[in-house]
Structure formats: structure tokens, C-alpha cells
């Protein structure tokens, strides 16, 4: 009797496993066919429209061709069952400027503009032309607040600026000093912001460091992290991924992974072992000698890609040839990118560009004229 019972139980287990396997296969097939990504071409009068939806990114991408110029924009929204979401396009012209406005019950976008067939941001069109389509334009009040050596024009941002012995943290109407060192430190090239932490080596140590400061940006508390390795200052930050910072120590021929919130680290590569680099979120192997002999960096998959070309600031989406000029200023360096917002330096002044407000002057600080590498961090 006992043998028969075991056979029945075994058969039941096999049957249940078979049912589970069939269910998993069905779910996999359904998920495959449930992919909502699509591309669609259609026309509205003299405008040719390419409508594309990326189900993985939950993002619509549009190209509108008018008089051989391709205007483009994105909307990050969930899938809509309807197709041909653009219902109407209006055209505005002023001398060599041309702007298109989009009518859709689902999509939101600023005017799509060009100057002499070159794509530009709507905030770069003349003010009288802006007034003609002012329902699309938001403006922000510029202030002039003095604090020590800073001229603050917009205090709605959370910004950390290095001040030799620590950081000045500008947070709305408050400025707080976060002290780290007793003596002046002019450069902090290995300081890295990762999520809600800012990590800075103990630059009071000479040649090598085995201690780091971790600033919690939620409460501004400073913690120390004594590490088990001596890292040379002849190092550079390769990039960040998830919770980890990747650092290359040129002098000692090592690649490290540091996880500040856990206070853990490990050696990723040494000797003949391959190093690690991330390309648009994908982990790849790389020769350690290449990491040591040249500055490499991670690349990131972004919906908004800001670049500097000949000291001009441009935005592109998924096609670098369709770049949109967003500033008439001479740009020295991009400081930070977050979604559609970008912070950048013009001489000694920090600016910000966003879709909502266009270009805004944030603050001026004379020190930024000649010393600006890795000294500003945005807490967003």
C-alpha cells in the first residue's frame, strides 16, 4: 500500500510541475505578443508625421517634416490605444524664424522652432514672437541675492559648491556650510555624487587615501568611511551604476567598486584580469591597460541628451543629427543633467535650461572663472 501511495504522490507532483510549466510558457507568449511598440507614418496637410512608441521606455517619439526640416519631440507617457495622436499643427513665422505648435488630446510639447532651417529651442525666438505664442511660454522671476561671494539669481535649486574646507549648500533661502577639512583644499577631482550621497576622499592625506567622507544629502550628516585599501590620488572616476562608484587607480593598476551606503568595496580588476565598464546600462569587459592609459567613462541611456558643440549647447533625442540649439551663450562646461533639465557654466555663472522655463541664470561666483572642475553638485 505504501508503494502505491508514493507513486500517486510522485505522479501528482509531476502533473503539477507540468501545469506550471504550461502556464509559464503561455504567460511568456502573451507577454511577447503584448508588446505595444509601433511606428506609424501619416500626414496632416503639408506636414509628414512619424509617430513611434517604445513600450519598454513608455515613450512616444515624433518627427514632423515640413519644408525639408525635421522637427522632433518626445512624450514619456503610457501607451494610448488610439493612433495618429496629433490632430492639428499650427504654423507661426517671423522673418527667418518658424515655429510649429501641436494640437493633441494626449500629447504636450513646447513649440517646435527653427531659424534658417536650424532647429532651436522656443526660448531663443525673439520676445515679440514669443508673445505671439505666449500661451506656451512660462517665465520665472529673477532675483538678486548677495551671499558672501555669491550672486544668487534663482534660489529654487539645491546646489553644493566647494569652498576650500567644505561645501556651501544653497537650499532655497538657506545657505549652510558643511565643513570637512581644517586647511584649504582647492581641488576635489574624485568627489562623486551618487543617489542621495556625496562621497569625498580625505584630501588631508598625502599621495594616497584610505578614508572617505560621506555626506547624506537628505539630512547633511557627515559620516567617515575607513577603507581597507590605500588608493592613489592618481586615480579617476569611471562612472556610477545603481549604488556603486567605479574608480580606476592608475598608479597601482587597479579598478575598484565602492558601495557607499553599505560601506563596502572590492577590487574588480588587477594584473591580467579584465576591467568593467558600462555602456548605456550594459556591463562590458575592457582591458585594464586601456582603463589605466586613457580616461574612459560610462555612457548612460538618456531620453534627453545634452552636448556641447563648438561651445554651443544642444539637445538631441535618439538622433544626434537632429540637434536642437538651446542657448546662445558660450558654454564652458555641462555640470549636471536630470531628465530635461541641464545645468552648465558660462564664464563665472551657473545657468539652467528646462523645457518649462527655458534658460535661467542661477548664480555667479568669481572663483568659477578659473577653477570649476568638479566643484558644483546638484541635489535633485
How are the SSEs ordered, and which strands pair?
Blueprint: H1 2-33, E1 38-44, E2 47-54, E3 59-66, E4 69-75, E5 88-94, E6 97-103, E7 112-115, E8 118-120, H2 127-132, E9 145-147, E10 150-152, E11 158-162, E12 166-171, E13 174-179, E14 192-194, E15 197-201, E16 208-216, E17 222-232, E18 235-241, E19 244-249, E20 254-259, E21 264-270, E22 275-279, E23 282-286, H3 288-293, E24 305-309, E25 312-316, E26 324-325, E27 333-338, E28 341-346, E29 349-354, E30 358-365, E31 376-378
Question: Please, could you describe this protein's structure?
Answer:
The chain is built from 3 helices and 31 strands. The longest helix has 32 residues. A 6-stranded antiparallel beta sheet has the order 9-10-30-29-28-27, with no helix packed on it. It has a 4-stranded antiparallel beta sheet with strand order 1-2-3-4, with no helix packed on it. Strands 5-6-7-8 form a 4-stranded antiparallel beta sheet, with no helix packed on it. The N terminus is likely disordered. The chain starts with a helix and ends with a strand. Strand 28 and strand 29 form a beta hairpin. With 380 residues, it is mainly β. It is 12% helix and 47% strand.
